[in-house]
Structures are given as C-alpha cells and as structure tokens.
Design goal:
Helix content is 60%, strand content 14%. Helix 2 packs antiparallel against helix 3.
C-alpha cells in the first residue's frame, strides 16, 4: 500500500459523515490503544448527543452581561480585567449588553466573574 500524505488523508476524512468518523476514531483507539479525547468531543458536538449530555451535567458556563447599571466606567474596568480586551472593545461590549463576557468557563471562574461584575454595579446572568 502506498503511503498517503496528510492532505490525502484529510481529503478522505472530509467525505465521511460524523457517524462514520466517530466509528473510525473508535477503531483507531482500539487498534493503537490510545484515546483521542479532544477529537471525539468535537465529533460529539457536531452530532445531536452533546446537548442532551450537557443538560445532564453542565461543566461549562457563560457569564452574560445583561446591563451596565449606573457605574458604567467601573463595569468597563472589570470587563477589561476579566477579558483582557482593549478599552474600545470593552466599552462596545458593555454598551451592547446583553452580551457574553466569558464563555465556556468552569463554575468557579463564572461565579467569581459574576461577583466582580455585580460588585461594579452590573447585572449579570450565568448560563
């Protein structure tokens, strides 16, 4: 068998459905006794099973700024600390509320960010 280049392999994978790709990953893991956790997670998200699993046990949270309150400048400062955005980007985010400030963070980070934003006078939701 001729050795396939990486581009050839990727071209073959592009033609597979998500189910076929998932089955390939399982076979690959069994054959070489390895775990492809990150690619398997990406494949699962593309299918329909991931939302049901996420509803069972949520481990990633989004911190959504719903309003800036009276102390808009303080809220912009906190947003900059949390996200490392520039001044203009942070101001645009605060002005465009409701907008997510942090996405896919763990529970502790989401709670800490929400408390910081609330302390600055903002209204926040953790989803």
């Amino acid at each position: 068998m001729a050795k396939l280049s990486q581009e050839d392999l990727l071209a073959q994978f592009e033609e597979l459905t998500l189910i076929e790709l998932s089955e390939f990953v399982k076979a690959f893991e069994e054959k070489f006794d390895v775990t492809a956790a990150a690619p398997a997670a990406v494949v699962a998200q593309g299918g329909g099973a991931a939302p049901a699993e996420a509803a069972e046990e949520q481990d990633e949270f989004d911190v959504v700024l719903t309003g800036a309150g009276d102390k808009k400048i303080q809220v912009i400062k906190v947003v900059r600390e949390l996200t490392s955005l520039g001044l203009k980007e942070a101001k645009d985010l605060v002005d465009g509320a409701p907008k997510p400030v942090l996405e896919k963070v763990d529970k502790a980070a989401a709670d800490k960010a929400a408390e910081s934003l609330k302390g600055a006078g903002a209204s926040v939701e953790v989803k």
